[in-house]
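Weekly puzzle thread! Below is a chain. First person to post its structure in token form gets bragging rights.
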Amino acid sequence: MPAAGRTPSSTPLERYNAKRDFKITSEPGPVRTKPGKQLSFVIQKHDATRLHYDFRLELDGVLLSWAVPKGPSFDPKERRLAVHVEDHPVAYGTFEGTIPKGQYGAGTVIVWDNGSWEPVGDPQAGMKAGKLVFRLHGKKLAGLWELVKIAKPGERQEPWLLFKKHDEWERPHADYDVVGALPDSVIAHPLKPLDGGPVASIQRAGKVAAATLEAGKASAMAATATPTKARSKRGPAPNGARPRPGQASAFDASALDGARKAALPETLSPQLATLAKAAPMHGDWLYEIKFDGYRLLTRIAHGQAVIFTRGGHDWTHKMQPLADELATLGIDSAWLDGEAVVLDAAGLPHFNLLQNALDSKRSSAAIVYYVFDAPFLNGLDLRRVLLWSRRAVLKAAFAGKDNDRVHFSEAFDIPPAQMLDAACRMGLEGVMAKRRDSTYVSGRTEHWLKLKCSLRQEFVVIGFTDRSGSG
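Winning reply:
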């Protein structure tokens, strides 16, 4: 069907061309493109007279375009106005920049999301009928969506509605506002494809490293620390640069700023996280899975491990096989901080299985311990060392030594909203956010935040479930 304002006799990009002076604006010229193997889509965040989102689908060599004032939502109840505007050239899909004042659409444009799309049914027939159903494969959007024309004959504009179809990707808007959670350009801040990736990688994480997910193939955030005393005083590498894999094993913990020789204390109170409603907007943070288990502190002296709850109760007798495995790590002395879990058949942490394992004299279920911090390690007090450096030293200590019961808990470099979204889809408890430049402080701080999928119901039919040992 003709785009808004286009007569049947006009060429697809005639109105696009007429609105722009290409001697002034840097926008792409009106050139039609032969279709590739996949149809592209792009959503551009356009800060013009009013901020809006330009939703564009490639079809027949051009980008069909709609202006969506509020942007998209994963909530099927949120039916967003989408005004059909002139077709754009396919090359416009990579355009970012500022349209000069006095030109049509003057203002700043960024690529908010992009990827490929699949029409459900005949897209040309759908456009003609005013109902287009399609699947998106983007970095921020995925799943089934629909555009429905609501324009009445003779209207100057051509309003449609854009909304999410019911599928596994839908989320209540109150739980997840994708526009607010992920405001940045996917060109300036690249993301990996969303659909298919987070769920699959969270399953892999539970089974293998129990760390977390990523959009696409899981890739652990390389630990950042400095291999020499000279570099350690300069702090993190510029632009968050990470060392090469395997580099951590060369780190000299005693050279790190804040490290000092100290006797191993008999007791240690853990650092606790503050419950947060949303991911932090500022600062340099790393993200881990919030495990559905018991928070445990392990004291290793002369290679022998004693396991304590966060309240200081000795639980070694409940977890003797785990204590034996910790003794095989080759660590002479340490306080290790982590979480004990039992994995279900899908490889995901399950609190009830852990509770059953602890209550059973046989304890046939394998309790797994994910270690995420080391306040003390091999004669050094690391509490004043920055988190990213502590974790690098810890990872080096675990290199080639973790086993079926003890693992280093990876952190991942993934947008927090995307990570939390996938964690919640898998039924996990949530995500931990920790400032990379924070020290280890006993007690509750705002340098560690917990982002929970929902408040857990603590009462069961037969009574109260004690979660005092959970982190």
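Puzzle host: Confirmed. Bonus trivia for everyone else. The chain has two domains: 14-181, 197-464.
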